[in-house]
Amino acid sequence: MMRYGDDARRQAGRGVGELVTPPEARLAKLVSLMTVAERRPHRVVAAEGAFLVPPTGAGSGARTGGPIAVDAHRLTTFLREQYAIGVVDIREANGRYTGAHNELRVRLVTDERTEANALHDFMLICAGVYGMDAGRTVDVVSASAVDGSLQPWLDLRTTMNAFDEYRRGDLDLNGWVRSLERSHY
Asked: What are the Cα distances from residue 127, in Å, to 30, 82, 93, 107, 120?
């Protein structure tokens, strides 16, 4: 037995006293991570490895899904530094849990108080959201153009589907701008 142990250690390149871990013990152990909510199948469904709350009411048109995956702080920094957009703040409205849309709400101060400047900044915001939202968790982007005292003067709103049509070339710029919801104050 002693000689067998010496031969086995020499072949494996181990020293005396080193512990041997069999290969099956080195495999990752599967641990159940089910939460209490996941054990209630009438309220929670599994989709692509994530547990999601289905929308209430059939035919609401909203996609099922989780919260917005865009980091608002990172997006704010990107828009300020790369495009010099005067982003005041970005808020998230995770509506998919209740059957509504996930909405990113942006307040911005434009260089000049013109609709053209607001539209230009809004388009860059949508492009930034599109680039940072690989999982397509944002359904709607809305922007409120405010003046120096944070009083709104223009609201703009679009769906990311409409922006994606514009980005792909299925819709020209004028068509996308016409599809925007606008409110002047």
From this structure: 40, 12, 19, 16, 11
